[in-house]
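Justification of resources, computational component.

The compute hours requested in this renewal are based largely on the per-chain cost of generating structure records like the one below. Each record pairs the submitted sequence with a full structure-token output. That output is archived, and it is also reused by downstream analysis tasks.
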Amino acid sequence: MTNVSLRVVVADDQRVVREGLAMLIGLLDDIEVVATAVDGLDAVKQAQLHRPDIVVMDLRMPHLDGAQATARIRSELPQTQVLVLTTYADDDALFPALRAGARGYLTKNASAEEIEQALSALARGETHLASEVQQRLVAATLHSHLPRQTEASTVDLPDGLSPREAQVLALIAAGLSNTDIARQLVLSNATVKTHVNHIFAKIGARDRAQAVHYAYDHGVT
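The structure output for this chain reads:
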């Protein structure tokens, strides 16, 4: 392979899955699997040893689960991104992984093309969430978390964000575009763009990737 641009570690406790993923990802253009890991502890060890661009992480693993391993990797190796690739898309798996610092989340029925798109997005500093994951985040944002934020005073929100700005920021963190946010909140695209500009100014974000990072760090999800 020539001109390898992405170095990847694959972590999964099931040998057949681990080896299959490593083979599949290794066949993608400009991507090299530099190591595999058999559990969460091993994922941290391999990440420390190889300093990959991305760790493809299962969640339900012995010794140290994927969310805990993600938190350690993101803390110790901030340049290494984590793409969760798991069987589960339930809230108990999803939210801990994202709060731990994962910037991508796919389920194991993802195609090779979807995995390649996710790896490329993370390499560009973007997020990439499976459509079913986006739907769960939007539902949680609109029907669970945000009503409590909307009722709270702006004092409870970081950096002077208004309740509406917090709502928009949470939807950005869920991977929605401005057009998607406008549709969800029944607003014009121009209004959403104004909210986004105000949010970026208040939190000091230069782009959506930094805004997503801020949202998870401050619990605006």
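The domain at 134-217 is CATH 3.40.50.2300 (Rossmann fold). The radius of gyration is 18 Å.
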